[in-house]
Write a structure and sequence with these properties.
Helix 3 (49-69) packs parallel to helix 6, helix 8 packs across helix 10 and helix 11 packs antiparallel against helix 12 (361-386). The longest helix has 37 residues, at 278-314. The chain starts with a helix and ends in a 78-residue tail after the last helix. The chain has 677 residues and is α+β, with helices and mostly antiparallel strands. Helix content is 52%, strand content 9%. A four-stranded mixed β-sheet has the order 1-4-5-8. Strands 2-3-7-6 form a four-stranded antiparallel β-sheet, covered by helices on one side. It has a two-stranded antiparallel sheet with strand order 9-10. The chain is built from 22 helices and ten strands.
Amino acid sequence: MATNTGAQEARAVAEAAREKDWTLPSFGKGLFLGDIRLDLIYPQPKLPEDATAKGERFLATLRDYLQQNVDPQAIERDKRIPDAVVDGLKKIGALGMKIPERYGGLGLSQVYYNRAMIILGGWHASLAVLMSAHQSIGLPQPLLIHGSDEQKEYWLPKLATSHLSAFGLTEPGVGSDPAKMTSKAVPTQDGSGYRISGLKLWMTNGTVADVMVVVAKVPRSEGHKGGITAFIVPRESEGIVTETRNDFMGIHGIENSLTRFTDVFVPKANVIGREGLGLRIALSTLNTGRMAMAAQSTGAAKWSVKVAREFANARVQWGKPIGQHDEVGQKVGFIAATAFGMEAMVDVTSRLADEKRNDVRIEAGLAKLYGTEKAWQVADDLMQVCGGRGYETAASLSARGVRGVPVEQTLRDVRANRIIEGSSEIMHLAIAREAVDQHLSVAGDLIEEGVPLGDKAKVLAQAGKFYGKWYPKLAVGPGQNPTAYQEFGPLAKHLRYAERASRKLARSTFYCMALWRGKTEQHGAFLGRIVDIGAELYAMCAAVVYARTIATEQPERAAATREMADVFCEQSQQRAEQLFHGLWHNTDSATYSLAQDVLEGRHTWLEEGVIDPSGEGPMVPDGAPASVTAPAGTVPAGTAPAAGTVPAGTAPAGKASSGKASSGTGPAGTATGAGTS
């Protein structure tokens, strides 16, 4: 019973944080309802000339700066981004790419911000993560969406030029289940602010941030609505200790921390939005962050095309370049077509976001899910194309006089993207929830347990009216007309397939909800396939639309782009058909049953014959309150603080001149950040 209660609480918290209104049209929402609104994404909005000129200038500056000043292998070797590199990024305005010019930023469009992320992701993933953690999910984005005028006026100029930011949501025992959050923000008796105590895990930029967004629970009390709330917390505030700098398989240059907050005072002016809005702020912020993840994954994929082309031409086996052998050629073709499809999704979604006429929450989620999954497949195929030279490190290759191509590093780096800012499994659930939102809004009480029969009878009439009009429309559509979408020429057939498949997808979703009703959410594998089909259909539509846009904007590339889009869509259609087949022909039930047997220890005999080098100990925290796990101002025994990491308010010893302290006050007594960069 306790488990069921916990699940209900978690679900209620997550549901309360959702953006429930659909005030703007959504291509993604229509796609899952069997209604592909091509007019929402085509023709693509033309980029304003001034925004294009500004964006192109910055991209040229960024490329030049990276090539002349940033050694990606030094980042990999030293496992940190040098202070001088961060200072240089500040000087060219990279910290303020998305911050409006009125606050001292560059004011780039989403299109050009993501194109910058593509460049950074291709040069070294840690650079893209640094910028994304600061700008996509760090303080600037929450302030732009939910901040007060005073907060924006005070913080955004600093964030655009000198102050790095971080976002603290995850905890040692809390990932995607915010109901279990233990960090507390207790209102002070004099009403001046809050005292935050808790432990935040995997806070990217956490060891170097000048200011952080910290999400914590405010207890309900007289005068306080309470709930999960987002706070602006300057790094210099007393009571903040970075306990460890976390080390990972890849993205070696990131400054990722386990940070403890002990009785940290935050003035009430530092609440973002209002009490109880914290999780919604986090989720809305992640829409932008997820687009950035898709962009940096695309950068890795586009780089992979170049490496695959060069290596598969240079490496000769059995009398011809390996790229001319069929199996290797298939991989090179997949890499190239997939990189194009990923770039198309990023471009289409970015222009939608800039235009602000559409709700892009589903499209952003699909772009993140699809881009990160496909980047991993691309990197894996690139490794196979390059063979032993791909598995060997770039440093080792360079040491023996061969070009140091970091294929194995790229494989390690892109693997993280399937986990961070919403794992693929969580993305499946989140997108599936949005995909069935229309069904739940008209028939939710029919499938929920515990709803009185009288209420169900009322809903039944409403649902019958909706489905009586909606379901018959799924029988026929433009996709069955051989002359539909003629303006797209040879690519029109792919749009016709996507339209037919969209209606089939909507029928499949309806069937599963009618079959499982309130237990639909328990069939995660099925819902995952539903979402993956939607991702393939969105990718196909984006590829066709993007190819047409390129043909218009760059006529000299029209034929090549059309050919690329055609192959990508053929590959995508095959994947979609396999997913459709897997909806109703699978081993989900048997596999889940086996998994539960394994978890219960029924098959420990299979583990015989090996020894575990990790020894004994807990896999996850034991649930002890974060505030008593370790004394304030300490690091775990035997663990040295990372370079540039010190307790708040302590001057960093031996820190480079880029780590400048500042003092003063912000709005209503807000202390400025002082830290390292």
